[in-house]
Amino acid sequence: MDERFDPLERRCPRLGGPVTFAYCKGCGDQNQPCWKAIDCWWEHFDIVSYLQENLPAEAFQKLMDARPKPKLSSLVELIEQAQKRTS
User: Fold this and answer.
1) In this predicted model, what pLDDT tens digit does every residue of 57-80 receive, in sequence order?
2) Is 21 exposed, middle or buried (0-12, 13-18, 19+ CB in 10 A)?
3) For 15-59, what is each residue's pLDDT tens digit?
4) First to last CA, the chain
5) Are the C-beta atoms of residues 50 and 5 closer than 8 Å to each other?
6) Helix count and strand count (H, E) for the chain
7) Count of CB atoms within 10 A of residue 71's CB?
8) How far, CA to CA in Å, does 86 sit from each of 33, 34, 40, 80, 82?
9) Pseudo-torsion of CA 14, 57, 67, 27, nearest 10°?
10) Quick check: pTM over 0.85?
11) What contacts 74, CB < 8 A, 6 or more positions away?
């Protein structure tokens, strides 16, 4: 994937702290972009065009159709991902 926007940083509404775009590109299901990436980054650059150019059509459509998960299951997934990263 194109890395020119990777160093950009903003506050993540899900985590409550600063994250880079590089993190958002791979923190979703199966290392795909976060389902909120478009909501979070549209003010910084043309995120929709970026994703269309850098994702397979099926992955892009899946991201566009993504709906938020219940808060509890989202928190459990984030905890599991953090545990995997630290082990």
Assistant:
1) 999 999 898 877 788 887 898 899
2) buried
3) 999 999 999 999 887 889 999 999 999 999 999 999 999 999 999
4) 27
5) yes
6) 5, 2
7) 9
8) 21, 20, 26, 10, 6
9) -20
10) no
11) 14, 68
